[in-house]
Amino acid sequence: MGTEQKDALQDSLQDYKGKISTSVKAALVWSRDLVFEGTTPRGYDLAFDADSQLGCMPTEALLMSLGGCMAIDIVSILKKMRMELKGLRVELTAERNPEPPQYFRAVEMVLHLTGNNLDSRKIERAISLSREKYCSVYNTLRSDLVLTVRHTIGQG
Hints:
3-stranded mixed beta sheet
């Protein structure tokens, strides 16, 4: 990737990331037992349930947030690199500490990308940029988290 392309990529990502507020809010209301209803200021709801009967566990939401944050970055970066991405499916597996606090010790993320003429080196670059610079969720987690990201490429 040439200097001009890197500058254009940087500018376009700054446009996207520049729109993000430096303050984030949410509200939780205890529903019953160990069930909470979360709401964002934009009106999106998410149910949390320690027993996973009426909603997801908070750690599942955190794992999906990590995958979602990186996936958004990666798609944005690959589009700016003019990759013909048709689809992306992310599989996540986390290993937790056996004793409280049961934080994530390791996360494996597998990106299944489909499209035409996808370049593995550009995908690796997009993953690296997300991880090192853009993904707020990853950079909020523990610094000793071992994150492994692999990808597969299929024709779209």
